[in-house]
């Protein structure tokens, strides 16, 4: 009896072990997600790039996973499908040209905007997500948010967003910056337009990028804008902003695709709140105040022997001189071209041309002058060619005594070939004159207001190595193409003299991904590298940079199956 019982027990144990071993090992489940969103400064243009980098939820370090999309329409919208999400948080980086909502024209350069988000079906990247991002990281990485770990990120996001809004004098509470876009008519859209316009004002793209970078640093540690120079930079430009005109510009850009928008949909008092927050600074108006101008003046000033600066302004008294009460519309720097290495003339620059059209917003009629870059030199304004500036000149209104007022003298523009003495490589001479008989021809009796000679050559703002940083700012010329650089144009990564090793510059940050010659590389510390080495079957260790790691010992101890190319390690 004991023998049978013993056999029975052993058999039962065998069956239990066999059953246990027959169960399938659980497979880790991945999250799949369809994402839609928009990139807004004004709306980013088609072809703009968006990169998403997955972050861990402990200290927001990159995990090594990344995803990419592009803007596919004129409204800044994109789509992204992901089917292998591990962690809940991502860093988004958008880059491209955008529609300047203040000037109502394409930006003069590309601008980066970022955001840190929890994955969601709708993720909008905008100036609020950009300004809050460093503050969110600071709150998480310095353990300044209490509560459960799963709730920390959401709390940090809400706190940082509302601190940014309060810093601009807007005392309303919201939860997520990614909920803000121009596509609705609610307060979130109106707040975003007010703050975006304040940051734009009369700044070019380089000035906006610089302002955004400084604001992120200032907001990072205490959630406020304390730097007096930054406050003055913002406050001294607020008087030039007309929220009604800016709202109309947004409607012109988006109204056809979004029927819920109207011309005044985004008009609000939030700009007044911002003006109250940044009051006390002398305002310096520099933006075209509107269509009710009398004529355009042009001043040409030599910067050096090769470059001239053209200044277009509202010539209220028609004297051809820029007076204190007159407003600068736009400034363009034009430089002469240089001969090629073989001694032949350099390639022609894109020509500046002008087209005229009947004004639509003048009660007594008028003319709109559009100056544009004629990329294919066909003397026609084609779709996609960049508008340099646009100005409307209205005919004079009726006099107050009941008799018709005198019509304003039309402005004429004559463009002829420049003399070889002025431009050895060819060029154009632009003459602005009072066209008394409205025939478009400069007659002997008609007064010339100004003349400018534009010689063939490169655009005044030159970026020889195409790294997004103009030569007059670039401290590191000849950067390889498709390589990430800082604000001074210096690469975060570079190839050592041996032609193989990839090194990180001193100012690069661990946990960040940078481009080098079109390839993405992650700068790692020892902790991250050790973790990736332990999971080497699922990690690409050929795309890491180890310059910040001082001790590489023991990384692959007892790892007999590792077979990746790490010849680029430092």
Structure, explained:
Residues 1-28, 287-294 and 343-347 have low confidence and may be disordered. This protein has nine helices and 23 strands. With 570 residues, the chain is of the alpha+beta class. A hairpin with a 4-residue loop joins strand 6 (99-100) and strand 7. Strands 3-2-5-8 form a four-stranded antiparallel β-sheet. It has a three-stranded mixed β-sheet with strand order 4-1-9. The relative contact order is 0.07. It starts with a helix and ends in a 25-residue tail after the last strand. Helix 2 packs across helix 3 and helix 2 (127-141) packs parallel to helix 5 (205-220).
Q: Could you estimate the helical fraction of the residues in percent? A: 10-25%
Average of pLDDT: 82
Tally of separate helices: 9
Count of beta strands = 23
Name the beta content range: 25-35%
Major sheet description: 4 strands, antiparallel
- Rg (CA only): 30 Å
Sheet with most strands: strand arrangement: 3-2-5-8
Spatial gap, N to C terminus: 72 Å
Class from helix and strand fractions: alpha+beta
- Low-confidence blocks of residues: 1-28, 287-294, 343-347
Name the shape in a single word: globular
TL;DR?
This protein has 570 residues and is α+β, with helices and mostly antiparallel strands. It has helices at residues 2-22, 127-141, 149-167, 187-200, 205-220, 228-235, 243-254, 270-277, 526-534, and strands spanning 31-40, 49-55, 62-70, 77-85, 89-96, 99-100, 105-106, 111-118, 125-126, 296-302, 307-314, 328-335, 351-358, 366-374, 387-394, 411-417, 427-434, 448-455, 493-495, 502-504, 513-516, 519-523, 544-545.
């Amino acid at each position: 009896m004991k023998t049978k019982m013993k056999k029975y027990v052993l058999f039962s144990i065998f069956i239990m072990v066999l059953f246990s071993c027959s169960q399938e090992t659980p497979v880790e489940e991945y999250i799949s997600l369809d994402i839609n969103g928009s990139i807004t400064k004004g709306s980013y243009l088609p072809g703009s790039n968006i990169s998403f980098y997955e972050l861990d939820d402990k200290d927001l370090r990159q995990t090594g996973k990344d995803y990419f999309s592009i803007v596919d329409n004129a409204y800044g919208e994109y789509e992204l499908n992901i089917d292998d999400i591990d962690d809940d948080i991502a860093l988004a980086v958008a880059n491209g040209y955008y529609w300047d909502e203040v000037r109502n024209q394409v930006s003069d350069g590309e601008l980066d905007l970022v955001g840190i988000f929890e994955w969601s079906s709708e993720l909008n990247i905008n100036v609020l997500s950009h300004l809050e991002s460093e503050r969110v990281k600071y709150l998480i990485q310095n353990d300044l948010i209490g509560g459960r770990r799963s709730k920390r990120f959401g709390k940090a996001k809400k706190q940082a967003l509302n601190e940014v809004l309060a810093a601009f004098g807007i005392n309303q509470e919201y939860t997520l910056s990614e909920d803000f876009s121009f596509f609705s008519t609610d307060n979130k859209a109106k707040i975003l337009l007010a703050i975006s316009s304040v940051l734009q004002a009369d700044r070019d793209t380089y000035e906006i990028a610089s302002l955004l970078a400084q604001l992120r640093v200032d907001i990072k540690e205490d959630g406020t804008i304390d730097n007096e120079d930054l406050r003055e930079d913002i406050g001294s430009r607020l008087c030039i902003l007309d929220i009604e005109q800016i709202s109309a510009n947004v409607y012109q850009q988006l109204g056809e695709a979004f029927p819920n928008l109207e011309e005044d949909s985004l008009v609000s008092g939030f700009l007044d709140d911002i003006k109250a927050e940044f009051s006390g600074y002398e305002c310096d108006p520099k933006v075209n105040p509107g269509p009710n101008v009398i004529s355009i003046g042009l001043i040409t000033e030599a910067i050096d022997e090769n470059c001239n600066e053209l200044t277009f302004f509202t010539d209220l008294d028609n004297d051809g001189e820029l007076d204190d009460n007159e407003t600068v519309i736009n400034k363009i720097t034009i430089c002469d071209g240089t001969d090629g290495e073989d001694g032949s003339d350099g390639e022609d620059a894109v020509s500046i041309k002008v087209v005229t059209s009947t004004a639509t917003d003048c009660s007594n009629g008028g003319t709109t002058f559009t100056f544009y870059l004629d990329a294919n030199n066909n003397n026609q304004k084609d779709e996609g060619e960049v508008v340099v500036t646009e100005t409307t000149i209205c005919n004079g209104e009726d006099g107050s005594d009941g008799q018709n007022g005198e019509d304003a003298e039309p402005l004429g523009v004559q463009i002829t070939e420049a003399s070889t003495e002025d431009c050895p490589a060819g060029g154009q001479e632009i003459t602005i004159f009072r066209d008394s008989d409205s025939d478009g021809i400069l007659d002997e009796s008609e007064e010339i207001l100004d003349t400018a000679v534009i010689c063939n050559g490169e655009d005044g703002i030159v970026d020889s190595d195409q790294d997004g940083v103009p030569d007059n700012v670039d401290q590191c010329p000849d950067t390889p193409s498709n390589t990430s650089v800082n604000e001074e144009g210096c690469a975060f990564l570079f190839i050592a003299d041996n032609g193989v090793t990839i090194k990180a510059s001193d100012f690069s940050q661990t946990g960040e991904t940078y481009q080098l010659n079109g390839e993405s590389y992650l700068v790692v510390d020892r902790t991250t590298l050790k973790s990736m080495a332990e999971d080497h079957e699922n990690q690409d260790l050929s795309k890491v940079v180890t310059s910040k790691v001082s001790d590489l010992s023991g990384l692959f101890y007892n790892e007999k199956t590792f077979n990746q190319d790490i010849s680029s390690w430092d």
